Amino acid sequence: MAGRLDGKVAVVTGGCSGIGLATVRRFVEEGARVVIGDISDEQGAAVVAELGRVAGGHEQAVATYVHVDVTSKDEVDALFKTAKDTYGSVDIAFNNAGISPPDDDSILDTELDAWRRVQEVNLTSVYLCCKAALPYMLEQKRGSIINTASFVAVMGAATSQISYSASKGGVLSMTRELGVQFAREGVRVNALCPGPVNTPLLKELFAKDVERAARRLVHVPMGRFGEPEEMANAVLFLASDESSFMTASTFLVDGGISGAYVTPL
Ligand code: NAD
């Protein structure tokens, strides 16, 4: 059976965990070859080994891992070059790596170094990845870029993570602008805006504190956190030609949270 991404080459940052990992697996299932950029080398090797087994019989590995700190221009450029050199094109860029560290909190308590680190990893990285991917896509006259923003790009929280929220607002604005600029050149740029998703990033925040989790869950009309696989399906849609009339969009996959005034509970 034909895969929805047959013949496509994808780059996924933050592909060793959570939303990125689920997406890498989904992309490979649908026939893509994937280059993973992350700083988690052990996990990267394990993912490539796992996918090698899934796709057994291929002469060429379907997935490649590259150690990349997404805040480094040289390393990001090398990541996209690896995709082109190894698999022949850059059709999909899922710019997804991000952090949510505890020292990014209320503006009253967040110091400049914490602010800057989050801006670098969450926002500057997306600028670097788009800048690296676009020349390949413009030359091919086709490409789909998906940048991971967040529901916090469209709504505020009283329990602030000030740099994180600002970084995701930046990702959303940048995505919209790029989508408009390159719409007539065959390159689509969309923002994935997940609601709260059950990943290591979120678990670390709430695992120790059931009350904190409950305080957030009450705002989600569906009454639960999302799963990484539910994000992967959305990314697959944006990456594939099925979303061919979509660009510059704010693609909310959030269990209804951004639409809620009064919730069922
Ligand atoms: P995660 O922590 O499970 O995975 C993040 C991955 O990024 C990890 O593999 C990590 O090693 C990698 N990474 C971190 N810093 C990096 C760097 N400097 N260079 C390269 N790789 C780096 O997180 P997740 O929950 O899957 O989040 C993925 C994206 O989704 C992030 O951008 C996050 O902000 C966003 N998001 C998450 C949620 C949620 O509830 N989990 C909600 C909205 C948006």
From TrEMBL:
Keywords annotated in UniProt: Oxidoreductase
InterPro entries per record: NAD(P)-bd_dom_sf (IPR036291), SDR_fam (IPR002347)
One Pfam family it belongs to: adh_short_C2
Leader sequence segment: none
Family listed: Belongs to the short-chain dehydrogenases/reductases (SDR) family.
NCBIfam families in the cross-refs: PRK06057.1 (NF004713), PRK07231.1 (NF005559)
Protein name: 3-oxoacyl-ACP reductase
